[in-house]
Amino acid sequence: GNSVTQMEGPVTLSEEAFLTINCTYTATGYPSLFWYVQYPGEGLQLLLKATKADDKGSNKGFEATYRKETTSFHLEKGSVQVSDSAVYFCALNSGYSTLTFGKGTMLLVSP
Amino acid sequence: ETGVTQTPRHLVMGMTNKKSLKCEQHLGHNAMYWYKQSAKKPLELMFVYSLEERVENNSVPSRFSPECPNSSHLFLHLHTLQPEDSALYLCASSQDHGGDEQFFGPGTRLTVL
Questions:
Q1: How far apart, in whole angstroms, are the C-alpha atoms of residue B106 and residue A38?
Q2: What is the pLDDT of residues B46-98, one digit of tens each?
Q3: Tens of pLDDT along chain A (111 residues)?
Q4: A34 interaction partners in chain B (CB closer than 8 Å)
Q5: Pick from B6, B92, B100: which is nearest to A49 by CB?
Q6: Distance from the A14 Cα atom to the nearest Cα atom in chain B, whole angstroms
Q7: Is there a contact between B98 and A95 if contact means CB atoms under 8 Å apart?
Q8: E strands, chain B, in order
Q9: Which one of B41, B45, B90 has the shortest CB-CB distance to A43?
Q10: How far is B1 from chain A, CA to nearest CA, in Å?
């Protein structure tokens, strides 16, 4: 079956630091991959996605590249802000079922 | 209103109460979902509706009863809940079942006393 593994949090960084949140997956077929973000007190919002190998999704300074050979979709940002503090979820959809989510990684950014 | 809305945003209920959560999507989508989000646990998919028919029911206790009267509205009826049912309940929609992007509502924070 499908599964998504994310690094445990919380990830604690100072403002302007470089961010990486690791995500690996197992899936049948050729899944689409997603990063969702959940700000405090809110639902999940789609941050970025990639639908095929070597695609790079990007949004708001965040990037992730679909790596089929390593079955990974790591989230990166070159310079985080306090406003990026949130929980980040990696997810996949293999086209035959609904989304499979990772457990989420909390990011805390201090001034 | 745009996107996916949920009411109420907060709910406190006793174990003998009956209450309902409401979700409405204004996106013209055909699929709607209920998720349960508990502290330190993965997001749990509870129910999936596609074109108003239930297509997935992931071993959810019968004290949770979903209803989808049309493609824009989804309800979750609650009765005789347990304290461990306290969680954030999220509604989502997508263009079609199995469609890649889901749009989430803000959630209902439920506390069962």
A1: 9
A2: 999 988 888 877 789 999 999 999 999 999 999 999 999 999 999 999 988 87
A3: 889 999 888 999 999 999 999 999 999 888 999 999 999 888 999 999 999 999 999 999 999 999 999 999 999 999 999 999 999 999 998 766 678 899 999 999 999
A4: 100-101
A5: B100
A6: 24
A7: yes
A8: 4-7, 10-13, 18-25, 31-37, 44-50, 53-57, 64-70, 73-79, 87-94, 103-104, 108-112
A9: B90
A10: 16
Nearest chain A residue to B96 by CA distance is A98
- What's the full length of chain B, in residues? 113
In the structure encoding, which two tokens stand for residue A16, read together? 């302007």
- Look at the block and give the residue holding tokens 């079922």: A97
Q: Among B34, B36, B43, which would you mutate to test the A interface (most chain A Cβ atoms within 10 Å of its Cβ)?
A: B43
Contact B98 A44 (CB under 8 A): no
